[in-house]
Amino acid sequence: MAEVNKEKQHISLNICDEKLDIYVKSDEETFYRDAEKLVKNTYTKYAELFRGRRSERFIAATALLEIGVKYQMEHANKATDSYNSLLERLTSEIDEALK
């Protein structure tokens, strides 16, 4: 366990009024901080729309859904980008071979 703590650092995050104390790799801290901001901003947007009319659980679920959809769309776009890149490279090689 001591070895794990040497490689990782302690950070505190605030997600939906919950303080999360976690250990992360130093080079990944920025990702956790950015995720904290994304969750906070998304949750706040839905809280402003629905607070008092819907449950906190509904607000959190809606925020999580939006984040999940954004992740899936980004993942799909990256898959398409790599396919397009490969297709462009192959097309270029074919064009060169035909010259």
Mean pLDDT, all residues: 87
Shape: elongated
Helix content: over 70%
Residue runs with pLDDT of under 50 for 5 or more positions: none
Please report which band the strand proportion falls in: under 5%, 5-15%, 15-25%, 25-35%, 35-45% or over 45%: 15-25%
For the record, give the distance between the C-alpha atoms at the N and C termini, rounded to a whole number.
61 Å
Described by strand count, sense and barrel closure, the largest sheet is: 2 strands, antiparallel
Number of strands: 2
Q: Order of strands in the sheet with the most strands?
A: 1-2
Radius of gyration: 21 Å
Q: Element order, helices and strands? A: HEEHH
How many distinct helices? 3
What structural category do the secondary elements indicate? alpha+beta
Concise summary:
With 99 residues, the protein is an alpha+beta fold. It has 3 helices and 2 strands.
Please explain how this structure is put together.
By secondary structure, the chain is α+β, with helices and mostly antiparallel strands. Helices cover 72% and strands 16% of the residues. It is built from 3 helices and 2 strands, in the order H-E-E-H-H. The chain has helices at 2-7, 29-50, 56-98; strands spanning 8-15, 18-25. The model has no long low-confidence stretch (mean pLDDT 87).
List keywords for this structure.
alpha+beta; 99 residues; elongated
Question: How does the SSE layout of this entry go?
Answer:
Blueprint: H1 2-7, E1 8-15, E2 18-25, H2 29-50, H3 56-98
Antiparallel strand pairs: 1-2
Helix pairs in contact: 2-3
